[in-house]
Design brief:
CATH topology: 3 helical TM bundles of succinate and fumarate reductases
Shape: elongated
Radius of gyration: 18 Å
Order of helices and strands: HHHH
Oligomer: single chain
CATH superfamily: Fumarate reductase/succinate dehydrogenase, transmembrane subunit
Distance between the termini: 38 Å
CATH architecture: Up-down Bundle
Strand content: under 5%
Helix content: over 70%
CATH class: Mainly Alpha
Structural class: mainly alpha
Largest sheet: none
Length: 114
């Protein structure tokens, strides 16, 4: 049940926050250099790296993406009529959390090396 609820929350959260950030980004680009600098300065420090808010949003959106994806894969398996046994279903539900965490860490480690 938790995985199903979290699937809906991550989908809605990514759509809402992602849309708001995209609109703000595009409006800042269209408004000129000063507006874009304001947008950029909210999420980055003076040296150009992400600040705390930038990290929280970036990692949060990444974790949401991977959690939503792993939960979607689990639902796809369930839609085939497989994995309805209680223990296997619970194991797959737990694996969605583990998989999304591992994928998020791997993504940010990869990004950090570039």
């Amino acid at each position: 049940m938790t995985v199903s609820i979290l699937h809906r929350v991550t989908g809605s959260g990514m759509a809402t926050l992602g849309s708001l950030l995209l609109v703000w980004f595009l409006a800042a680009l269209a408004s000129g250099e000063a507006a874009y600098a304001t947008f950029r300065d909210v999420f980055t420090s003076s040296d150009g790296s992400l600040n705390i808010l930038g990290w929280v949003i970036a990692v949060g959106l990444t974790l949401s993406l991977f959690q939503h994806m792993m939960s979607g894969i689990r639902h796809l398996v369930l839609d085939t009529g497989a994995a309805f046994e209680l223990k296997l279903n619970q194991r797959l539900a737990r694996l969605t959390f583990l998989g999304s965490t591992v994928l998020t860490l791997a993504f940010w480690l990869y990004v950090g090396t570039k």
